[in-house]
Amino acid sequence: MDIDKKPAQEDVGDALSVAEGQMAAANGKPKPESLCQYSDHEIDGLIKKLVRKIDFFILPPIGILYILNYIDRQNLSAAKLQGIMESLDMNTQQFATAVSILFVGYLPFQIPSNLLITRIPRPGMYICCAVVIWGGISALTALVKTYDQLLAVRACLGIVEAVFFPGAVYYLSAWYTKKELGKRLAGLYIAQQVGNAFGGLFAAGILQLDGAHGISGWRWLFIIEGCATVGIGAICACIMPEFPYNSRMLSQTERDLAVWRMESEAGAAEGHEKESPLKGFLDALSDPKMLLLIFCNILSQGQGSIANYFPTLVDALGYSSTVSLLLTAPPYILAAFVYYGITWWSDRRNTVYPIIIALLSISIVMYIIPMSTDSVGARYFSMMLLPFASVGPQILMYKTINLHLARPISKRAAASALVNAIGGTSNIWSSYLYYDAPRFYAAFGTLMGCGVLFIATITFYRWLVRHENKRLDSGDPVQIAKVIKGGVTQEMVDLGWRYEMY
């Protein structure tokens, strides 16, 4: 729906949407000429309509693609239950290497990819091209005959998949304000949990084809899921829009509104800033907050590694492979609801710190249960809570990164990729922790330590950003200069920007 014609005044019924709209309209950034004819009340209504339109065109495709991303990444764990280790003559350590080698390609390629996406006019097309390529690579996994071939395919898969997650997070942050971003990031993680939940269900169904046409069940798994990814990726390439400033799905007035509301928070938006990707990368490296956020994400992704081995953990309960795959679904479905709840609360209350602490505290207790009892009921109870408690803090961490390191734009893109890439190294070493079933002492003990360190580190980060806010509030040019040196632009200072949510 275009908004070039001036609408009649209307009540904005959704209280949360009103808050989002009023935030942008109330800021001191001058309106573009095309919006000067509208009152602030009318701008609120226009923003509500704009956000709904953005949601319609962006969230479904990017959510579906993330589901495919996780299904294609996690199907190796499902294949383990159907005999891939025996077919390729692998031992437990070799299987762990096959899981972790994906991240050898995945991690380093995130940084150049995210720097590149800031200069590509059609980021949606760029992301979807990567989806089509990784779907083809995933399907080719069905052809591997040896362990070495599996390693080669998994390494290539990681390189291409490096485009998606940091690119998607940056892409969303280019469209949504601070009161909107949390729920949209949650949409990615909800899609992740849907991928985990239904990936297990799909795998359970596909694996019933074992022996059909002389093809093993685990090979069918890669063929069907890989080909589906190729087809859906090609369709989504025709749907996903560009950046706000050049989106063809918006009228000129809508484009002006989309850019203005982003600039009202932290300064120049995508396409309106001239700083080079290299300068943004160096800015990110020189920001002291980056080291703390990177360390937090190392700990968080270490905890999140549980998703890579969740079918193995559930299988340790002693059920058949099909039942184990089915039992992986309920924890992920619960996690999807919790993710939306915590991010709704975070956006509503403009807070993340107490939510992170609460989730980490739950996860620490849940790690203790499987190490201390053989009770199937108690262990499955902990597994019901662990997916959201272990992975939930990552959503709020990415919200923090994209709002606390907002500008320059190339810095935000570099920071998002750096934090995810270096933090993602946890997926390599953590792959070797999941042994000694059913209690998995090494895995759960290590993840419990990560949770404790995470609480300590994020608490120190909270103290640091609150200290920076005091400097900004002081009005002292010397103190403000120190904050600017620490990673805040002069334009952000002029707009009254502050480190929030902590």
Automatic annotation (TrEMBL):
Signal peptide: none annotated. Keywords: Membrane, Transmembrane, Transmembrane helix, Transport. The chain crosses the membrane at residues 54-71, 95-117, 124-144, 150-173, 185-206, 218-240, 290-310, 316-340, 352-369, 381-401, 413-435, 441-464. Residues 58-469 form the Major facilitator superfamily (MFS) profile domain. It holds the Pfam family MFS_1. It comes from the Eukaryota. It is a multi-pass membrane protein. It is found in: Membrane. The keyword Transmembrane applies. The keyword Transmembrane helix applies. This is Pantothenate transporter. It comes from Phyllosticta capitalensis.
